[in-house]
């Protein structure tokens, strides 16, 4: 969760990134960043529209594209055809991974304990040492079936 004062910093940094791309931080883009910040998981365009009063889909899509190009948001790949969007990790400071339901496509954020993150980093470095590769980060997607879809599969015909 992003607190009130951090949210002020967030918008300031977003504004800087947009200006460096010769883009303006319009009220519509500001609202969009607020929607992504509050969601706590990657959102599809229909989900973004649900949370934005009266914004045309073309406008939302164009603004998301601008945010992605400015490094403010990033596109998340799920298991379905929906593009999903979340704020960039270096912007929020919340490193996390994704749990992806292969049945309905829902993507949920998960956080891993710091000692496990350290173990992951050590494993990544050990695995790439021979390649002369410098690891700068990682993304891990966990695939499976969400609670709702498991319920539907186990519930029999209705
Ligand atoms: Zn599901
Ligand atoms: Zn991690």
Enumerate how many helices there are, as a single number: 7
Query: Structural class of the secondary elements?
Result: alpha+beta
The largest sheet has its strands arranged as 1-3-2
Overall spatial form: globular
Cα(first) to Cα(last) distance is 38 Å
Bound molecules: zinc ion
Report the sheet with the most strands, covering strand number, pairing sense and barrel closure.
3 strands, antiparallel
Please trace the helix and strand order, writing H or E for each element.
HHEHHEEHEEHEH
Strand fraction equals 15-25%
Percent helix range: 40-55%
Task: Give the topology, please.
Blueprint: H1 4-20, H2 27-39, E1 43-44, H3 45-50, H4 57-69, E2 73-77, E3 83-87, H5 89-92, E4 97-101, E5 107-110, H6 114-128, E6 141-144, H7 147-154
The structure holds zinc ion (2 copies).
Question: How would you characterize this protein structure?
Answer:
The protein starts with a helix and ends with a helix. It has a three-stranded antiparallel β-sheet. A three-stranded mixed β-sheet has the order 5-4-6, with no helix packed on it. Helix content is 48%, strand content 16%. The chain is of the alpha+beta class and 158 residues long. β2 and β3 form a beta hairpin. It contains seven helices and six strands, in the order ααβααββαββαβα. The model has no long low-confidence stretch (mean pLDDT 90). It binds zinc ion (ZN) (2 copies).
